## 1
Amino acid sequence: MMQDLAEILFSAEEIAARVKELGNQINKDYEGKELIVVGVLKGSLMFMADLIREIKVPLRYDLIAVSSYGASTSSSGIVRIIKDIDVSIQNEHVLIIEDIVDTGLTLRYLITTLSSRQPASLKSCVLLDKPSRRKTEIAPDYSGFVIPDKFVVGYGLDYAQRYRQLPMIAALKPEVYSTEKNSGKEEN
Ligand code: IMP
């Protein structure tokens, strides 16, 4: 697995330190409020698990799964919900937790869909932000790290469902994914 990595972008320690900072910011911003945290499967699993343990305001969490169609290292923008959240978010303060915002199309879809359910507020928190690839004008409210246009894996992020268990975030060697087929269903 390690031989497929081109470079390590963030170590486990750097991620933990940044997650703590994000937690502190969220604690300030939501003081006196209650949160519903919506984690986007599968990539946000580790980020969400670590982040919510830094959050001191009362919260409930739920999970949503979406899929997009297109090449497996780039998103087509056609998004649909595979597994919806179970809780009602009407009049609740909702925070979406995503692993990475790339073209922005997935996050845009989630924001549009969840805001139609009339939450009291809706914000997004992403671990990684790749602004250079944006296809829609969207900026996450909280972002862990801004990264260049590299395909990254680890800490929940995958290529073809693999590498999620790596404790660090690393860029994958282009030759590992350059043989990909340009069609088919991709689960996030
Ligand atoms: P977007 O709709 O293009 O913003 O893509 C969001 C989804 O694409 C993320 O939730 C990831 O599942 C996936 N994705 C985008 N870039 C990467 C990457 O560098 N590594 C792993 N997954 C990625």
## 2
Amino acid sequence: MKAVVLVGGEGTRLRPLTYATPKPLLPIANRPFLERQLTWMAASGIDEVVLSLGYLPDAFRAHFPDDRFGDLRLRYAVEDEPLGTAGAIRFAAETAGIDERFVVCNGDVLTALDLSALVRFHDERDARATIHLVRVTDPSAFGVVPTYPDGEVKAFVEKPPPGQAPTDWINAGTYVLEPSVLERIPAGINVSIERETFPRMLEGRGALYALEHDVYWLDIGTPDKYRAAHLDVLAGAVGRPPVADATETEPGIWIQPGAVIDASTRLVPPVLIGADSAVGPGAYVARTSVGAGCVVGYGARVDGSVLLDGAEIGRASDVVDCIVGPDATIPEAGTVRDEILVADRPE
Ligand code: GDD
Ligand code: MG
């Protein structure tokens, strides 16, 4: 089965991290997010994935130089201008010659959904399109999708005003589509599947269905959610170990090869220390993911944070709820709270 992954967005809410790296290639617990998504797809019977691109397409090509990821074949559909979610799906499907039912995923969703169960549900109802739904406490930031008892969609309301959502079940960003849906999408212009295609499919009955399946699910697209995704992955939300070569030395403490942690360092789970990183002496690292080749200096405190590869935390610094970008440095005795810090770019 083929799949389209929508990865054309600019990741504006994760700037400045996403100026250099597109959101799907940012790591979650030391593994690029997209690799996690592709692994999940391959395990559910997907054998070919079309990456629907617009922003920084060369970064994807460079990341997968053989156009493969394990057994998955990768193809690229690069838009000159953003075509919107539906326009992008149509363009990607045409580029890859998709002519049988296929899967579509938003490129920023981390989930433990049983994709095969979604496909079965779709087939059993003979649907044209099927949407995975999860339940959230504030549906107003999402597509809100009330359904009939058999799963047929009643309405699709993208981002309703706060307090006006008809249900707290929301579009989780994974779809099964029949190729006939592509004919409903005008070619070559910007079309939103959430605001145009899905609502129009409700003009007749029996075409659009949705599966309520309340599994682990997170849209990683904001700094808070990006940090939260790390803690969830370290806690085993999408399987164990959180990254292939990590060893659990104490409950919730994961260490990758070559990391050197001084015995006087205090680690409070969940914590991941990446390959060849050096931590301590006298450091305190809590609820934090540390990338490869990082340094956490003498007596530094790092809490609730994500350090990307090569980050350096100066002696006696105090870093809370931060994302420290690749090779960025926090100076000695620096205090930072709730920030994204990146390295100065070379002139
Ligand atoms: N190729 C391409 N072209 N991709 C695009 C385009 C485009 O023009 N526009 C958006 N995307 C990609 C983004 O990169 C992202 O992976 C996905 O489409 C969804 O876009 P977001 O910008 O992240 O949308 P959202 O999070 O506000 O809302 C969407 O996701 C929610 C679940 O997380 C909607 O699908 C909501 O209905 C849904 O609830
Ligand atoms: Mg999103």
